[in-house]
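Project standup — Tuesday

K.O.: blocked on the structure for the chain from last sprint. Re-posting the sequence here as requested.
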Amino acid sequence: MDSVIGHRGAAAVAPENTLAGIQKAADLRLKWIELDVTLLGDGSAVMFHDPTMSRTTSGSGHLRGKNLAQVVTLDAGSWFSGAFAGEKVPTLLETLTLIKKLKLSLNLELKPNRCDLKLLVEEVVAAIEAAEFPEDQLLVSSFNHKVLVLYRAKAGSRIGCLFESLPRNWKHKARQVGAKTIHLNGKKLKEKNAHDIKAAGYELYCYTVNDKDMADRLRTWGVDGVFTDNPALIA
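H.V.: unblocked you, prediction finished:
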């Protein structure tokens, strides 16, 4: 991945997990973005972070109680700014198609939100294949280790293990899914852990870093890159 990755697109300057956010990241000349994928109640794979609709759309209620026909009618932009009124919750296939067109690369975070893990993996793999999305422009990550194990059994994409802070068994988990990268909360990372991860041969990325001084400090520890809502500030 790159040294600066747009978090949920470019979340400080456009509504998260939207096509507008992806376009904004491209306008900022980012090479990599991070987005969340989850399932609705009807099994549709959409770009969304939360288990409920209310924070980032005009809707309410849990995703599990919604189908795609309902969700596509929602406004996913006005909460952020009137300039984005009418922005929609995109499907994974729509998202992959745009990212491919813009020649961006994607860290796709699998967000179970209590959905069926096996179905989530099947839908993600199917969309990646349908979009003919380039493997070298994709990295799949998740906090949920079980979904990464299921994904590894189905696909050859690069995998990143995502942790809040580094667990004692992190090497076992990373080996189990053939991970190439480790992703950690930048505020909780300890310098010794950073050195241990790098010494073990993994790339190391930190989220969500919106402070340039923190980004600079993490880089001195060997961190390869940071996820940020505000790419212009960090870059």
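K.O.: great, moving the ticket to review. The mean pLDDT is 98. The longest strand covers residues 32-39.
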